[in-house]
Amino acid sequence: MMPSSLRNLRCQLGVLAVALVFATCACHSRKGDDAAPVDAKAEAIQLTAFLPSRIGAFTADGEAWTNSAPDGPTIEAHRFYSSADGRKATIELVTGDISKELATLDSEETHAFGSDTPTYWRTTTIAGHRARVVEEKPTPKKSQCLVRVGPNHVANVTIAPTPKPGGCVTIASLLDFGGIVASGGVPASPKRPR
């Protein structure tokens, strides 16, 4: 039979081992919590610097505006534009949770599932960045493109009406992609397994 002091010591060591396992798990599960919190408003304002007052034939209709949740997860900057010939453009820059946009960018589908509209998607590159362009066929009325700008940003450019296919590509190619990538942005949270 084991002396009680030895049993107590083994019990205490066992409790200590379990406590260490829980502490280690807690530290690993909190990885990233010590990172500086995201200032969503500051990130959004930083994005507005990449929405110029003039781009191609378009002039801004007013100041850029931002949209973000107080703690992230999606941070957006928008600006509306007009051209002398009456066309309208919208440019949106997004950082943070760009999973919705990435689902479209990563797709190779040419027609939206279940859609009965004459709208078709095509994949291209704009200034070296993967892009998806959506337009009506045979004659586009509106031209919209999503551009993956580095790991943390997506640009969304819409032109309406468009005189020819690819109207959004012309305007999107004028954006400062290098500056947008260099700004860093906000990485999306890793996807959690379900």
From TrEMBL:
Keyword Signal: yes
Keywords, sorted A to Z: Signal
Signal peptide: 1-26
Protein name in UniProt: Lipoprotein
Organism: Labilithrix luteola
